[in-house]
Amino acid sequence: MFLPLHDHNRLKHVPRPYVNLSLIAANVLVFLLVQGGGITEGASASVYSYGLVPAVFFDLRDLAPHLQVLPEWSGIVTYAFLHGDFMHLLGNMLFLWVFGDNVEDAVGHIGYFVFYLLCAAAGGFAYAALDPGSEIPLIGASGAVSGVVAAYLMLHPRVRIWVLAFGRVPLRLRAIWILGAWVIYQFVQIATSIDSQVAWIAHIGGLAAGAILILFMRRRGVVLFDRHLA
């Protein structure tokens, strides 16, 4: 519905959000170098080697020897650096570009890196726990990005964001309307989608983690819900 383009929200504590930029770069490099841009035979192998396969994570199945690159438990995080295609990558990275810098500003560089990985793990665990015996791999940064969205919404609901509505109409609206609608959309999809290729439950897991973690990980003096603007 809404494609975020830019927010008018200056950083207050860090001169440059280099962790957020590094995460974006890492996702792009993995897509190009590990997955071959999503078009090579090696790309499908990487989905099993680095993606999150619930049955493998819960030790119910073993990967083929040639796919065992990392410890099986590591998929709970590494899956978040893989993407199905360019548009999948672009959508996640755009959300991270617009909203991630302010979350990094609120929790600090190291804190943001930990926050991001924990949100990814929460999204992955939600997906795996829903069907522990599944052999369908989960990939994509959506769980981690959902955590970033939840944190941003709790920190800056009053900030105005430029978005592209329905792919063609530029609008400038408060974050609470844009991101609030996005959050509601995730719950609607998980309640109504049948046999969807999108792992909506991973989004919900990331959202919950981000909302909880920002309560405890934000810097001292960083307020929630833009209360300093009241």
What does it look like?
There is one protein chain. By secondary structure, the protein is mostly helical. The chain is 56% helix and 8% strand. The protein contains 9 helices and 3 strands; from the N terminus they run βαααααααββαα. It has helices at residues 18-34, 41-50, 54-57, 75-78, 86-107, 109-130, 142-155, 175-192, 200-217; strands spanning 2-7, 160-165, 169-174. It has a 3-stranded antiparallel sheet with strand order 1-2-3. The longest helix is centred in the middle third of the chain and has 22 residues, at 86-107. It is globular, with a radius of gyration of 18 Å.
Please render the helix and strand layout as text.
Blueprint: E1 2-7, H1 18-34, H2 41-50, H3 54-57, H4 75-78, H5 86-107, H6 109-130, H7 142-155, E2 160-165, E3 169-174, H8 175-192, H9 200-217
Antiparallel strand pairs: 1-2, 2-3
